[in-house]
Amino acid sequence: MIKVISFSGLCFVLLISLFNCSSNSGKPDTTSIKFTQYVVRGEELYQKHCSNCHQKNGSGLGLVYPPLNTSDYMNQNFEKVLCLMKYGLKEPITVNGKSFVQPMPGVVTLTDLEIAEIATYIYNSWDHNRGIVDVAEASRVIKACTSVNQ
Ligand code: HEC
Fold it and tell me: Which CATH number fits domain 30-143: 1.20.1260.10, 1.10.760.10, 1.10.3720.10, 1.10.10.10?
């Protein structure tokens, strides 16, 4: 009897890991519990630190605050976006063909995990569907932030 139980237990573990393997190949992770936690916490942090300027719905504000809901800049500058949350941005940029010149202040107290959560939220809301931005990936990027942001 004990043998039977442990055998089915092993099958169960194998099944789970097989399922995980297949769901990780190719498509972005948007279904795991971890993804959901990141999005929920990321949204809270976004409301607290970002929505004053970029608005709750990510629309931005005229030519003062650039939009996040649809942003070619976000699509093309993933690393810079992670860095600017923490260190701000002082160079003029073009978003969807419009110029923005006002500097953005960073939130230097954000941890790598918080940046990963905010990034997961903004990169999977509105027009974006990137999948999870894991804390390990965020840490790697943030270590390499350049002086453009600082
Ligand atoms: C005080 C207003 C303000 C706050 C708060 C703020 N931003 Fe910004 N953000 C700006 C401005 C202004 C720019 C343009 C900076 C430039 O041109 O150098 C910008 C640029 C950006 C960009 C790149 C341009 C784009 O639209 O894709 C992203 C992404 C971004 N901010 C995300 C965030 C996130 C995430 C937070 C919260 C952690 C945040 N911002 C907080 C004002 C703000």
Answer: 1.10.760.10
